[in-house]
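Progress against Task 2.4 (sequence-to-structure conversion) is shown through the following example record, which the project officer requested during the mid-term review.
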Amino acid sequence: MAAYHSIWLMPCAEDGALFDGIVGRLAAGFGTEPFIPHLTLVEDMPRTAEDLAGVVDAAFAGAAVFSATIARVDGGPSFFRSLYAAFLPEGPLLELKRVAVERFGVGEVASFMPHVSLAYGVPDEAKAAAIAELAPALVGRTVRFDEIVVAASAQSIPIRDWSIAHRRSLG
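Structure tokens generated for the chain above:
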């Protein structure tokens, strides 16, 4: 079986702690799996962490720490995009996605919907109330991103087994 990995953009410690608290609270409330809050640049690649680490280090060597503003809190039908904080696909987020698509040869820029998931598998009937509760505190909030990681994660890997295999700090 091939090892699967994804490339994630990580919020700084303070913002990560905020998201982690929300993810934990929502997972407990909905009876769903908690996970490491992140923004996915590339998902589910059948490549080793070592292979991807070298590409990440070279591709993002000049990338700087940056901030982006949460545009909305929303939900969708996809299990992994069930409840999330969305960002506009612009500025450094869009540029990092372009670099990722170019360097990893997967994904597409046109369909990029940058977001940090807040819960996976939320029942449809519970989404509206969760969005109404979370939106006032999150929409308009600036989130600082300071790291790109190689994560052992994929839809075929149990969420509880996801882990970070390599870290690249942004300059």
